[in-house]
Each structure stands twice: as C-alpha cells, then as structure tokens.
Amino acid sequence: MSRVHYYWMKEIAGLQLLDLTMVFLTMSPQINSVALYLKQSRPLFRIGLCIVSLGGILSLSEVIFEFFSLTGNDLVHFELWRLFTHFTIETNIFAFILLVWNLHQVASLIEPNWGVFETIKYLGIVQIGSSLLIAIVALLTFVITVNDTFFFRTYIFGLLSACSAVCVAMKQYLPDSVLLTTPIGHIKNTHLPSCILVSASFLVGFGLLRWVSLLQILSGIQISWIYLRFLQPHDGEPRGDASEHFAWATYAI
C-alpha cells in the first residue's frame, strides 16, 4: 500500500468516526429522555417491557416461536402450558408498538387505581380466556368443515387481546378524554375499542398483520366488557359497572 493510499484511508476512517460521533451527540438527548422515563416509570411497565422485548427477540427463532405459540391442535393434545407462554412472543412491529403504548397506559392509569393484583388478574383473564376461546373455535371449525388450516397451522400469540382489554378499561374509566382532534371531530377514549379494531382491519387487509389478530381483538373486547360490566369487584359496592356510558350499545359509536 502506498503512503498516499494509506493517508487517504486514514482520512476516510477519521471522517466516518466523526460522523458516528455527531450522530451519537444528536441522538443523545433522546436516549437520555428514554433512560429517564424508564427510570421514573412504574415497575410494572419495566417488567412488562423486558418480557415483551425478550419475547420479540426469542420469536426470531422458529423453534422457540413454535414451542411458545398456541394452536387449536395444541389444545387437543392438552398442552395447556402454552396458554401461559404464547403471549410472551410477538413478531409484528405494529402490534409491538401498540403493546408498548398499552403498557404505558396500564402503568400510568390502570395499575395506580386498581392495584397490581386486580390489573394482572383482569389482563390475564382476558388474554388467556380469549386465546382459549379462539383455540376452541379452531377446533370446531376443523370438526365442521374438515379444513385443517385454522386448526393446525394458525398460530395464536401476542398480547393483542390484552391490548383490547386496556382500551376497554380506558373507555370505562375516562370515556370523554380527548386523544386526537380531527377536522371531523374528536377521538376520545370511548372510541378506542372501535379504533383498534378498524386499524387492525386495515392492516390485515394490506397484509401487514396476521388475520387471527382480528379474532384476538374482538374476543378481547367482548371478554373484557363482560368482566368489567358484571364481574369486577368493588369495595362495598355491587360488582361490575351498570352505567349507561359503558353499555354494549356504546361500542357501535
């Protein structure tokens, strides 16, 4: 290598190092903001974020993905432990972003008012109940139509049912809080269940989200509404929420 070539390569390396330094300095405030938020966030958010992030990384392995996820066939073989592992993995970036946003809402709004036990119980009932229901539907579909695609090859995974449950809880707790102002009106918390369903439908239509996610969202909305409407315990008060703003008819709005 000639001396000129050597100094030319050294100059390029120096410029690349300078560019990387400038990029780091530019991103430094954002990195510090994220680090500060994580430090100040509630433990439930940090633990949940660690679990779903680890699950997202592990789901890149096909072996781990198939081992953790759930199908109707797994239910028939009594592999019920999958009900407690399938929600730890997620392969879709849109679902992951929604999940992180919902984790923030759970940690900042729901868990401080309900407590850790009631929050985890609520989300667990909706998530596991929804996945169990979808697996049963897959089994019935196979028995009736003899089509094995849904039963054997449609994987149920992720926390979209729990995300739906968070949206329903926000609709119940702060229905009139404005999330977004548009030229045609306000989008409020009361519209969240409908918004997540419509958004998922568009993503599924364009092939950007798995179709079974619609079943996860629909069943999650239904189960969470039943729990909050009729079953959730309250200190010294009747179970559930009989208020008109939380009636089933309001979900069509």
Automatic annotation (TrEMBL):
Q: Which residues form a coiled coil?
A: none
Q: Which GO terms describe its cellular component?
A: Golgi apparatus; membrane
State where the protein is found: Membrane
Q: Look up and give the membrane topology term.
A: Multi-pass membrane protein
Q: What is its main location?
A: membrane
- Per the UniProt entry, the signal peptide is none
GO terms for biological process, alphabetical: retrograde vesicle-mediated transport, Golgi to endoplasmic reticulum
TM regions (residue ranges): 45-68, 80-101, 122-144, 150-170, 191-208
**Mind listing the UniProt keywords for this protein, alphabetically?**
Membrane, Transmembrane, Transmembrane helix
Q: Which SMART domains match?
A: DUF1751
Name it: Uncharacterized protein
